[in-house]
Design brief:
3-stranded antiparallel β-sheet, 3 strands, 55% helix, 7 helices, mainly alpha, globular
Length: 157
């Protein structure tokens, strides 16, 4: 009984630390079965914004996430304490783009500290580990790690 209480407390603490848009996405994914989760992921891949010209014209300003099975590049900007995320992934890579879409929808426009407070294991809260390979999940974990690292660097400047 003690273990159950501890687990519930941990989940509540983790969920409380999540930015509202990210928590809402988790709820959306949890509310459907594995097949529909893949459909939600596809929709998020299609909604991923295009790179602004300042990055499209200078790709060296983006950091590659080598753990992703498809080429994915990202950049983080900090403006008045708020994080802005930019991703570049090929349209032929809907899973990778979908993971980027989750992070963009859930974290873009959030305060820097809220982004840093996101638990490292949050990619597993979407129930996608049942539907995609562990290597693909590793890519999403790596994306979050890069976002947090770049955020820390920006805060230290």
């Amino acid at each position: 009984m003690t273990e159950e209480t501890t687990d519930e407390t941990t989940d509540e603490t983790t969920d409380a630390a999540l930015p509202a848009p990210l928590a809402e996405l988790i709820d959306d994914f949890e509310a459907v079965g594995p097949k529909d989760r893949l459909q939600l992921l596809l929709e998020l891949s299609e909604d991923l914004p295009e790179l602004p010209a300042r990055y499209a014209d200078q790709p060296d300003k983006l950091e590659q996430v080598h753990e992703c099975q498809s080429p994915l590049f990202l950049a983080v900007e900090l403006t008045d304490g708020v994080i802005h995320l930019f991703f570049d992934a090929p349209r032929e890579a809907p899973t990778t783009r979908g993971f980027a879409g989750i992070l963009h929808t859930g974290l873009d426009g959030q305060p820097a500290q809220a982004v840093l407070d996101v638990p490292d294991d949050v990619p597993f809260k979407f129930g996608l580990a049942e539907a995609v390979s562990p290597l693909r999940m590793r890519g999403m974990v790596a994306m979050l790690s890069r976002i947090k690292r770049q955020t820390r660097v920006l805060l230290s400047d």
